[in-house]
Amino acid sequence: MTSKRVSPQRVRSSSKRSKTSDVLYETPGEPSPMSQVLPPPPPVVVFDMDSVIPPSPEPVYTKEDSITPDDWYDKAINQTLVDVAEKVEKNETERMERQMTNERYRLIHETVYPITKSGSKFLSVGVKPFADYAPTLKIYNPEYTAAICFTVETFEDFLNQMEKKRNEMISIPEGQILCMLSDYVVVMCKRQILQFLPCSTTVYKSLFLSCDTVNVVLNMGEHLMSLLHSRRLQYKFYPCYQKFINQVALEVMEKCSEDFNQKLFDVIKNSYDENGTLYEIVLKLPVNIKHDVDARIKYYREHNDYDCL
Hints:
- The structure is a single chain.
- The protein is of the alpha+beta class.
- Among the domains are: 105-235, Secreted effector protein pipB2 fold (2-Layer Sandwich); 239-303.
- It has helices at residues 8-25, 49-52, 69-72, 75-104, 152-164, 211-219, 221-233, 241-255, 260-271, 276-284, 286-303; strands at 108-114, 122-128, 134-141, 146-150, 177-180, 184-188, 193-198, 207-210.
- It has a 4-stranded antiparallel sheet.
- A hairpin with a 7-residue loop joins strand 1 and strand 2 (122-128).
């Protein structure tokens, strides 16, 4: 029998492979990857929609279920709703009218002075845009909406008459009339307080001024008269209000801008060289500006007349 020789090199290589396989699959303390078993998949649940959500019942209508306008209409309730709507509209209209009236008394191009140590009374010199930029002097208490207003002529009358009574004010008894001004009756009250009662209807309450405060105004009289005259001299530099309103109305009609305030600022910037007086009018008199522009647009659309420019 012939014997076959085995190469020692082959035996050694075979031995190496077996050792390597032992390292890969027989690591102590860890299970073999082949021995791990995956868990079974979860069961699939199938819902029967007919059994979960029952079908809706079939609607059944009868003649008794129908409602006619005569059934739900209540004349008393309807009248109440109409009255409430009319009251709301009336209140809104009155509120707008009060705002417009208050704005007409506001001044622009103002110079303001505090005339009391407590800061409760102020004196302002400016012009009224809705009175053709008439120079106006106003002494007011902003906390109580009380004020007295003077033009150049009426303030000059105030200075003359109060100067005559200046030395007599302390000795005048309570309740006695000190003097009669063009637009006010001056009455002496307690603790040397003067009350200025308006002779005509005004939006302001009657103003109370101490004799000391009146003396402060009298001491400033010459300077205040100079300010009033300077406002009168500057009249020709003030912009034409109606021309501005007409131009804004045409711009709004042409470009239909949703931002009304931005349209006002654009017109001032592009057509009036950023006039400071117009900026002040827009900021202090917004309700009147909007009302006048809307009225001008309505006039244009109804009459198709642009000759007012």
